[in-house]
Design brief:
With about 290 residues, the protein is an alpha+beta fold. About 30% of the residues lie in helices and about 30% in strands. One of its GO terms (molecular function) is transferase activity.
Length: about 290
């Protein structure tokens, strides 16, 4: 029996009952599914849990929370992992013209969650260019700024766990972010319109897939557009996570320009009217694709 996995924006569920080694763990406010040889499932989970403890803005003791507490006050020394993901986030911000911006935390954390400042005040603080890096230090230059890594942290954890376990094959997912390597699996992308499956596909090479949308909860802040859901395929899960978030947040014009300039990124778009678009790069990751739309 082939291995079947459905990618859902909030939760990825395995559809196959034939995996004695596949395990589910609670991680980053959602669920992780791990299927690795050599009994390494728990090892991968603990590694990703360690990353969560550094990156989560829900944990007062995390490095990200420490950065936010010191916004406009002083730089904070962070671990190589936290520094790496922030550097990657800032790069994605540059290539997406700010559509992806981790300083959206001023809105999501300061204004919406903690009610410390107004939405209007918070919006003026969103600017990735005000994140300053010097050596191993991170500094938010203005008071009440905040970093929110929710649009990149899960993909980063999946990618780093893959690099850490060094197994010849495997599957790791956290919510809508997953990586499969060294084997073929039947994968499925969720359809929020029919509540069924939008696409089924068998990968023909290693791939990361990330899916973003606002239909279960409005957590992505962006410009009005015609999209309902975005799925990105690429080799690196940190990139797929951030780019799927960014593409979903872009205006229609900005998205078209971005995709024309980054044709190496696989993309599957579901529009609000039910129509579907995918590019050739997306198809190149799979040997069989079935669209149910």
């Amino acid at each position: 029996m082939r291995k079947i996995t459905i990618i859902v924006v909030i939760l990825i569920l395995s559809l196959s009952a034939s995996f004695p080694k596949e395990e589910v763990f609670y991680l980053m406010g959602t669920y992780a599914i791990i299927d690795l040889p050599g009994g390494k499932n728990y090892q991968a989970y603990r590694y990703m849990r360690n990353i969560e403890e550094k990156l989560s803005d829900y944990m007062d003791t995390s490095e990200v929370s420490e950065i936010n507490k010191n916004a406009g006050i002083q730089p904070v020394v962070v671990s190589p992992e936290t520094l790496e993901v922030i550097k990657k986030a800032l790069y994605i911000s540059q290539i997406t013209e700010g559509a992806f911006d981790i300083t959206v935390g001023a809105i999501t954390i300061r204004a919406k969650r903690n009610k410390e400042i107004s939405i209007e005040e918070a919006t003026k603080l969103v600017d990735y260019r005000k994140v300053k890096l010097e050596g191993s230090k991170v500094f938010l230059t203005e008071k009440n700024m905040a970093i929110d890594l929710g649009g990149i942290g899960k993909g980063y954890a999946v990618q780093k766990a893959y690099e850490y376990v060094k197994t010849p094959k495997g599957f790791i997912s956290i919510a809508g972010d997953m990586k499969v390597w060294g084997e073929k699996r039947l994968l499925a992308v969720y359809d929020p319109i029919t509540k069924g499956i939008l696409m089924e596909a068998i990968n023909k090479r290693d791939v990361c897939l990330s899916t973003s949308g606002n239909y279960l909860r409005e957590h992505i802040i962006g410009k009005p557009n015609s999209l309902l859901q975005v799925t990105v395929a690429y080799e690196d899960c940190t990139a797929t996570d951030a780019i799927s978030t960014a593409v979903f947040a872009m205006s229609d014009e900005q998205r078209q320009r971005f995709l024309e300039n980054h044709q190496d990124i696989g993309i599957l778009l579901l529009y609000k009217d039910g129509s579907v678009y995918f590019n050739r790069t997306f198809l190149n990751y799979f040997e069989l694709v079935i669209l149910r739309n």
